[in-house]
Amino acid sequence: MHAALIELYSSHDECLYSQARFLKAGGYTVHLLCNAELGSRVQDIDIVDHSLFVPFGAGNWTDFRQLLKIRRYLLDQNISVAILNTARGSRIRNLLLLPNPHTQFIGIGHIANKIFSGFTSRLIRAKVKKYFVLNEYILPQLPKDDSIQVQAMYPIFYPPYKTSSVKKPNEEFWVCIPGGIELARKDYDALLDNILRNKLDSRIKFILLGRSNLARSENQNFIETLKKHSLDRHFVWFEDYVERDEFFSYLNNCDLVLPLIHPQKPPYAEYITYKISGAFNLAFGLQIPMLCERSFEALGDFAVSSFFYEEDELAQTLNGLLDRGDELRIIRDSIRSYEKFQFDYQQERYVSFIEG
After folding, report:
1. What is the pTM of this model?
2. Which secondary structure element, helix H or strand E, spans residue 306, and what is its range?
3. How far, in Å, CA of 210 to CA of 52, rounded?
4. What pLDDT, in 10s, does the model give residues 75-118?
5. CATH number at residue 247
6. What is d(CA 199, CA 137) in angstroms, rounded to the nearest whole number?
7. Domain count, the chain
8. Exposure check for the chain: N or C terminus, fewer CB within 10 A?
9. Is there a single domain that holds both residue 79 and residue 7?
10. Taking every pair of C-alpha atoms in the chain, what is the biggest distance, in angstroms?
């Protein structure tokens, strides 16, 4: 049996490794067909059997020729199932409009309500009858549609990494905010306001684990504000892209993951209904407790994996967690033993859905 993982865009590559493992464990020969932009970022997925990297973005006609190449590859390699890692957009629509009666296409909806909205999505749904979404809390939010099947899938497994020279002082308490400084998505304003109003314990450090992109004036202003109030001693940030080994070395030294998603930020409505933050899966997969805004307590996976805070009490909550080491260990053990976060559980459900 031959299966293809297809990513025609330049994001969501963090979901590919788990799926490759699921398919390999299910007895599939795995083909990885990717946008060439992802080449360096997926080179560690060495468990796939065959890879094809295709350049996009040189114009509509050139892109169409690349889609013909992908179609020919699917036919020549006798691909029985192809998982569209980002099942949206004109490239996926155009690929599916090309005749291919021998391949079953399955999609992943990263913003799940968009599966059902728009003309392009309707054309995609004509060929894609099964979709994965990225957490079970999303399923009840979706409209009922008997023409398609939807199931949750948790891509929370990551390639092995080499431990870098990251050293965490024993007395420090590291709080990881994965990703770059994104003021539109993460509520850095609330964080800053909290630690300006409430003295933060000197042992606490926030690891802003991504490229800070200080060329953006709002990001530069945030850093300057930290320095102005002598708060920069509580923060570690990176001006350049964080290489994978260093990324995971920092993350595995952290005591907490802080998604920093609050109701006042517009993306919140999607994060609590139709999409996930990558911070969730990193915490689940690496068995690191999360610290989430109180409303996430209603979501099942978070109740076993997280601490919670009221938005205006973030700094006080962090200070209090310094002396709750036993509770942190209990949450880690809870994540480690939670059935839904086990590889065998996710792999069996993934393959059963594809084959059912």
Report:
1. 0.95
2. strand 306-309
3. 28
4. 999 999 999 999 999 999 999 999 999 999 999 999 999 999 99
5. 3.40.50.2000
6. 36
7. 2
8. C
9. yes
10. 64
